[in-house]
Specification:
Blueprint (H helix, E strand, L loop, with lengths): L15 H11 L6 H8 L9 H7 L1 H6 L1 H7 L6 H15 L4 E7 L5 H14 L4 E5 L2 H10 L2 H4 L2 E3 L25 E4 L7 H7 L5 E6 L13 H10 L4 E6 L8 H12 L11 E5 L2 H13 L6 E5 L11 E3 L4 E3 L6 H8 L6 E2 L2 H4 L4 E8 L3 E3 L3 E3 L14 H7 L1 H15 L3 E9 L2 H9 L2
Parallel strand pairs: 1-5, 1-6, 2-3, 2-4, 4-5, 7-15, 8-12, 10-11, 12-15
Antiparallel strand pairs: 9-10, 13-14
Helix pairs in contact: 3-8, 6-7, 8-14, 16-17
């Protein structure tokens, strides 16, 4: 709640009850119907990407995180504000507690994870934020203040075993111990990582979405979190994020995607620009116009993991030539943050999850095609990440599981755009089907 227009005089409330109490103290006359309607029916719309916001507000986020978020348009929903309030209360009361936060794509999980980190730091607590995605963590490290970079850690590193939830994690780097560890994208954890991570700090927060599991050995599900916590005798609180805030059209666009993959009839929302293309060149031209607009829009290209494996060949599309992004420390941050070569390179699912742009072009491959129903095409898949648990392997050994993972991937690719998604199809029958649905 603000008393001024510049956000310098701001008081933050984490529950509607606390806000109502404050309003009762300062409002002399009851509001009329117009006042009530403007608040109740007002729409909250993100107008910038989260990484851009973090980069442009490095100093302020360390000193006054709540005020900085609110004054920049990143306000919290009741569910989100409740989580921050409860976690801080658990820290203040020196509780041992685990929070499980479930939310769909675009529900603000990463926003709240970062807000929690900055809020805890500003209050003097020792906190770190864990990820598995090396591309995302490198982009975030490039965006935050240098004092925060060390607080962004991997919760899993694979063969090296040095992640927060792995045996070789160097706890000596945090001499004063850890009060709070936050895990974003926790659905990508294995059960072993879940077990160790729950023992790293008195308060742990897990943000997860089972519909964003990518590989066969990822086990970050509600049942696994609860089972491990129960064995440890840990106190658990569960919260679900219901709103979809990052994407224009919100819940209606989510319903459209559900309908698309489950033979429904929901149309995309008018507020969201969803377009299909016969020719890739035309999609590239339209994205180029977005870049050239005033003010310029941020764009990106993402693609199904087909045609090229990124190892033997970096070329994903031959004409026009589009190559895979490869170096997670240099290429990915430059691509998503500084818009370098955004129409000449593309990200795979591993470089798309967690990222966003105003408009995203999706190259839909031949791995998932429409033939009167959705069909998985194993021979089109080139993704061998995870060895026996890879999508390529599972498409042969466990088609049902592979189909679930593939649908997860396309939902992620189709939700990277804040304002719109443009889709080029390498299979014409699939294109015709989806075009008929919009």
């Amino acid at each position: 709640m603000y008393r001024t227009t510049n956000g310098n005089d701001c008081e933050i409330f984490y529950t509607p009850v606390d806000l109502a109490k404050k309003i009762d103290l300062i409002v002399d006359n009851p509001p009329d119907q117009m006042d009530i309607d403007s608040i109740v029916n007002g729409k909250f719309i993100f107008s910038r990407t989260l990484i851009d916001f973090v980069r442009n507000n490095r100093e302020k986020l360390l000193s006054v995180p709540g005020r900085t978020l609110l004054s920049s348009g990143f306000g919290m929903s009741p569910d989100q504000g409740y989580v921050i309030g409860q976690v801080i209360e658990a820290l203040e009361n020196k509780q041992r507690k685990i929070f499980l936060i479930r939310g769909t794509m675009g529900s603000g999980k990463t926003l709240v994870a970062l807000a929690l980190l900055f809020t805890a730091i500003s209050k003097g607590y020792h906190a770190i934020l864990g990820y598995r995605n090396n591309r995302l963590i490198n982009a975030l490290r490039r965006s935050v203040d240098s004092r925060v970079r060390e607080l962004l850690q991997f919760y899993s590193t694979g063969r090296y075993g040095r992640g927060i939830g792995e045996p070789n994690f160097d706890t000596g780097r945090f001499e004063d111990g850890l009060d709070l560890v936050i895990y974003d994208e926790a659905q990508r954890m294995t059960r072993d990582v879940i077990g160790l991570s729950m023992q790293r700090s008195p308060v742990s927060v897990y943000f997860y979405d089972e519909n964003q599991i990518l590989i066969g050995d990822e086990e970050g599900t509600r049942s696994n979190f609860l089972s491990v916590a129960d064995k440890l005798g840990a106190q658990v609180e569960e919260v679900s994020f219901h709103g979809i805030f990052r994407i224009r059209g919100g819940a209606q666009y989510d319903l459209f995607l559900d309908s698309l993959f489950n033979h429904g009839s929901q149309k995309p929302p008018d507020a969201y620009e969803f377009k299909t293309y016969v020719h890739l060149e035309h999609m590239i031209e339209d994205l180029g116009r977005k870049i050239a607009s005033n003010p310029p829009e941020k764009v990106a290209l993402v693609a199904s993991f087909t045609e090229s494996d990124g190892r033997n060949s970096r070329i994903r599309v031959k004409t026009p030539e589009i190559t895979w992004l490869m170096d997670e420390k240099t290429e990915y941050p430059e691509y998503w943050i500084n818009q370098r070569d955004v129409l000449k390179k593309c990200a795979s699912i591993y470089g798309a999850q967690g990222f966003e742009a105003d408009y995203v072009g999706v190259i839909w491959g031949r791995d998932l095609v429409w033939r009167g129903s959705w069909v998985l095409v194993p021979e089109a898949i080139t993704d061998a990440v995870g060895n026996n648990n890879s999508l390529k392997r599972l498409a042969v050994t466990n088609k049902e599981k592979a189909m679930k993972l593939l649908l997860n991937r396309y939902r992620i690719l189709l939700t990277r755009g804040i304002k719109g998604t443009y889709v080029y199809f390498e299979d014409s029958e699939t294109r015709d089907y989806i075009s008929s649905r919009i």
